[in-house]
Design goal:
mainly alpha, Multidrug-efflux Transporter Regulator, Chain: A, Domain 2, 2 domains, 6 helices, 3 strands
Length: 161
């Protein structure tokens, strides 16, 4: 990873869209546009729609950028490379392609709410199936929420409740 300013994040930390845009030397709107063109590019979204990119998201974006800008391929070419498996996509990012179409609700997992291409009736889209990466992410969110709740309770008690 690139060198960061003081207080830098670890290599495994999630990055905001501004950090990714700076690292890849791309405008933020290009990253948002690529989300609509490449099913595998689906950063996590949290409060207010803020995007958080995993290290594997950034690696994929870097590969897409190089194919488009350095190697001269078109978006359709890169889409085909992804579909044919000519570009290595980490397992946790591959799930987005199962429906065959871009997901309109990016805050959901692929086919998560029945609005995907398969209508949510396919047995392979069972919401109970979580890979280790997604389970870990959910556990981290739960831990953050629990800590915030506990802090709010403590603050409420300190305020004279």
């Amino acid at each position: 990873m690139a060198r960061r300013r003081a207080g830098s994040k670890s290599a495994a930390a999630f990055r905001t869209i501004s950090e990714v845009a700076e690292e890849l030397q791309l405008p933020q709107h290009v990253l948002r546009f690529w989300e609509t063109k490449f099913d595998e590019v689906q950063p996590l979204k949290r409060g207010g729609g803020r995007r958080y990119y995993r290290p594997e998201d950034i690696d994929l974006l870097r590969r897409i950028r190089d194919l488009l800008y350095s190697d001269g391929y078109t978006i359709k070419d890169v889409q085909q490379f992804l579909e044919d498996g000519q570009i290595e996509v980490p397992r946790n990012l591959r799930r987005a392609r199962q429906g065959g179409r871009p997901q309109s609700d990016r805050g959901q997992t692929a086919q998560g709410d029945g609005e995907g291409a398969s209508g949510g009736t396919d047995a392979s889209s069972a919401p109970a199936e979580l890979d280790a990466s997604h389970r870990h992410e959910l556990e981290q969110v739960l831990a953050e929420l629990t800590a915030a709740r506990d802090e709010l309770r403590r603050a409420g008690l300190d305020a004279g409740d």
